[in-house]
Write a structure and sequence with these properties.
alpha/beta; about 15% strand; binds nicotinamide-adenine-dinucleotide; Rossmann fold; 2 domains; seven-stranded parallel sheet
């Protein structure tokens, strides 16, 4: 069998949030497929550092560009730079996203004892933090898609890959804004796949299960002991493979959805979750 991802060689990919933990693993996979890559991250310095490091390790063409997925002007500016340095954009990965402690309830399920102090419940959530987590994950997928896919329209070919999450299918406790936003990402993935199907652009998503990264370390690890928190242990117990994922576990599904190997696939969300979404918990 030929290399099923051969068509990716030389294609120009933009990955938002690409300087993060999962982004880095995806960047490495795209570099191995000999794609040209722009890491577009709000942390421009880190994006440049990561780009230089992976380029040094692999010899691939990788640049780091500062871009805020919530600011259209910043995205337009990044696109100009990417076009000038790498050429026209073939692939967009919407990777920027995450949760925030201020949009997280302390208690999982309310009980009568919580009625005296609502601060740890849904009623104590800060609406501004709720908005900002929702916006980062949802609008932060919509806006970059508006800006970075226009070259694909001209080429009548292109791929968008959104990074959703397990909590898009069933919400996890404590994180209502993040769950609602990722659910919206799935819905938008299907909507846009239909909208763009006749102009040659495919739109899909992956839904990672549980990976320990900066955004969730405070929830799944016990800082003092270095062991799993009760929540971290619960996740492992509910993941049939019995472990957290490694960022490299996302690479196969990603390259598959980016390449012509999936040329008749659009509008799907692939769980990469060690079986979590298949398990009823008993
Ligand atoms: P991470 O925090 O390591 O990386 C996120 C990156 O996004 C960072 O480099 C950050 O600088 C960047 N970013 C934040 N705000 C931005 C903005 N406004 N504009 C541009 N860039 C911005 O997180 P990660 O775990 O690598 O997450 C990557 C994606 O995977 C996110 O969409 C996340 O929701 C999703 N995800 C993660 C997990 C997990 O277990 N870690 C599970 C499911 C889904």
């Amino acid at each position: 069998m030929n290399n099923p991802f051969e068509d990716l060689r030389g294609k120009v990919a933009v990955i938002t949030g690409g300087a993060g933990v999962l982004g880095l693993s995806i960047v490495k996979a795209m570099a191995a497929a000999e794609m040209k890559i722009a890491i577009a991250d709000i942390n421009g310095l880190l994006a440049e550092e990561v780009a230089a490091k992976v380029a040094g390790e692999t010899g691939a063409s990788i640049i780091g560009v500062e871009a805020n997925v919530l600011n259209r002007e910043s995205l337009e500016k990044a696109k100009e730079e990417i076009n000038a340095r790498l050429g026209s954009i073939d692939v967009l990965i919407n990777g920027a996203g995450g949760n925030h402690p201020n949009a997280t309830t302390r208690v999982e399920q309310m009980e009568d004892k919580d009625l005296d102090d609502l601060s740890g419940t849904f009623y104590g959530l800060d609406p501004a933090s709720f908005d900002s987590v929702f916006a980062l994950n949802f609008k932060g997928t919509v806006l970059p898609t508006m800006v970075f896919t226009t070259d694909m329209l001209n080429n009548h070919k292109g791929v968008v890959l959104n990074i959703s999450s397990m909590n898009s299918f069933k919400p996890l406790t404590k994180i209502p804004a993040y769950s609602a936003a990722k659910s919206s990402v799935n819905n938008f993935t299907q909507w846009l796949a239909v909208h763009l199907a006749k102009v040659g652009i495919r739109v899909n998503a992956i839904a990672p299960g549980f990976f320990i990264t900066n955004q969730n370390r405070f929830l799944v690890m016990d800082e003092k002991t270095g062991n799993y928190s009760a929540r971290g242990q619960k996740i492992v117990n509910n993941t049939p493979m019995g472990k957290f994922g490694e960022p490299e576990d996302l690479q196969g599904a990603t390259l598959f959805l980016l390449s012509d190997a999936s040329s008749f696939i659009t509008g799907i969300v692939i769980p990469v979750d060690g079986g979590y979404s298949a398990f009823g918990g008993v």
